[in-house]
Structures are given as C-alpha cells and as structure tokens.
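Tip: read the tokens left to right.
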C-alpha cells in the first residue's frame, strides 16, 4: 500500500505530474477555472512544461509564470524549473488585435 510519504519520495514522472497538478490547484485555485495542463514532466531534470489557456488567448502573465515557478521549485524538491507553452492544440494561429470579432451569418 502506497502512502503520501512514499509518493513524495517517488521520482517517477507520473507521480511528479500529479504532485505538480495538486500544488497548482492548491496554490493557484483561480487557474483551475481556465485551461491548465501539465504537458510534460522530466523526472530526471526536474523540468516541467505547463500550458495555460489556449493558443488563441494570452494565457497567464509573466508575473504569474514566475510565481508559479517559484512556488513549484520551493514546494516540490524534484522540480527545478518550468517552461510554458500557450498552445492548446485548437489549431488557431490568429494573433490579430482586431476587436470587431467574427462576422455572424445573420
């Protein structure tokens, strides 16, 4: 039977992914309202790649990214740093600043 103590010492990527997600949910609950994805975890290097929002939106601010990295590195010994990717896979490459919005067929 696995206990919380055992899991905190487990260096596998799957365990680290769960611990990163739990820490984000606990420390940054506002991010759970949007799209937050732990995309990649390298258990050997401690590097975690996160995705926030969608490729067609701005995701999170640089200040929030720095706060997330500081929290994860401080709270999880296995995490050495983060990278972020704003792509969600929706296929959108629209980065225009036109505020008119889409044209409706009605």
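Filled-in amino acids:
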């Amino acid at each position: 039977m696995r206990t919380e103590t055992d899991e905190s010492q487990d260096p596998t990527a799957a365990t680290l992914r769960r611990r990163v997600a739990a820490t984000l949910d606990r420390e940054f609950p506002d991010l759970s309202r949007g799209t937050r994805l732990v995309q990649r975890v390298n258990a050997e290097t401690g590097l975690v790649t996160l995705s926030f929002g969608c490729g067609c939106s701005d995701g999170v601010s640089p200040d929030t990214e720095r706060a997330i990295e500081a929290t994860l590195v401080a709270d999880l010994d296995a995490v050495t740093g983060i990278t972020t990717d704003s792509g969600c896979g929706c296929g959108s490459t629209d980065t225009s600043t036109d505020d008119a919005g889409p044209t409706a067929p009605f």
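Confidence is low (pLDDT under 50) at residues 1-7, 91-99. The beta strands are 36-42, 47-52, 81-85.
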